[in-house]
UniProtKB/TrEMBL annotation:
Residues 217-437 form the Metalloprotease TldD/E C-terminal domain. SUPFAM superfamilies: Putative modulator of DNA gyrase, PmbA/TldD. GO terms for biological process: proteolysis. Pfam families: PmbA_TldD_3rd. The keyword Protease applies. The lineage of its organism: Bacteria, Pseudomonadati, Pseudomonadota, Gammaproteobacteria, Pseudomonadales. InterPro entries: Metalloprtase-TldD/E_C, TldD/PmbA_sf. This is Predicted Zn-dependent protease or its inactivated homolog. One of its GO terms (molecular function) is metallopeptidase activity. The keyword Phosphoprotein does not apply. It comes from Ectopseudomonas guguanensis. Keywords: Hydrolase, Protease.
Amino acid sequence: MDARQHFCELLAHLQAQIQGEEGFTLAYSAEQSGFVRFNHGRVRQAGQVQQSYVTLALYQAQRHAESRLALGGTLEEDLPRLQQALQQLRAVLPTLSDDPYLRLNREAWRSELAVEATLPDSAVMAQQIVSAASGLDLVGFLAVGPQYQGFASSWGAFGWYAASSFNLEFSLFHDNGQAVKSAYAGEQWDVQAFARRLEDARQQLAYLGRPAKALQPGAYRAYLAPAALEELISLCCWGFGAQALASGGSPLQRLFSGKAELSSQVIIEERIEGGLAPAFTAEGPRQALRLVSQGRPGERLVSSRSAAEYGLIANGACSGEYPLSLRMHGGELDEQDVLQRLGSGLYIGNLWYGNFSDLPAARLTGMTRFATFWVEDGQIQAPVNTMRFDDSLFDVLGAQLEALTREPELLLPGGTYGARQTGSMALPGALLSRFTLTL
């Protein structure tokens, strides 16, 4: 039984069981993933995971409760589990208090997208990766395969999403223990595109054999590659949520209150098409939103609970009110011109474990790592010792932002705890007039 049929059979069973004024929602997630670990340029561990889960929520008036179930994949096994969960929720509901902020979407909406899988299986991809990495100490992790998400309600809502993707994160290690980190992700595996990404990392690897340059704390011209910019943006994404902004706890509070602006080059969207997330959430159909428009605040992500609490209009945001398919527009800088435009300064391919040093000021701190290079006259000269950065997003994407690269890079979440994550970011690289290193 395929995943969509499995979901529809579970839904049909629930629809036949509902009594009186009861209502329900049913969220479904499943994956058929291949995982491969690499070490010293060879396959060290490979495996397959096939799993599915549902979350059943039962509603009566202003009361609700939910239960999450791991499924076995057959109706003979899963229907009794679902029925038992329904009975348990019925027993719990009378003991609960009314939820004053419950605002259910009772529209009979429909959203379906099933992208035909065109990816080779993980064994073929692993073989190509090993072949391309011959002679290199490549350490990495590949996750590949289809993912499925469904949502339905007793009020007629139905959403289905199926797509295949891959995410390869890898590092090339030098004999001295230093490494260059890179990644390649998407929906279409192109062995030539991977070879180009690998060659870029190989070229950077050669510089790691040079004596490292020690820098004094201070402000330096810098280029943040898309993966480095992702570390900063991802820390602040939840700040676009209506609840965070209404409560005054958002790191983007100053932007949305008009006390700060970003560079006019900055345009950030929550998109529906082109990302790797369903066009719906448990809140209903998602909407395409302009979160930042030429440096100025735009729309915010509003869930049904925030809409009820703050008198707003819900726009299909997930309950956490963070972007699922964030995209920052590119600029006028060609990628091959990055070093020349940088001149002398820092080329930063990745940042390590960012955190807030001053949340209201959107001030972020963390460490440089994985092949940060010192550049002079448009040429890489030496690796730079690990240093701590501390700078405000309002400055990095504000007065300090000189240019953005033309083509945003698709970046997928690498998390696999419990299940492969969905969603995506598409970010350009950012050329900065200065970036602050503190120690």
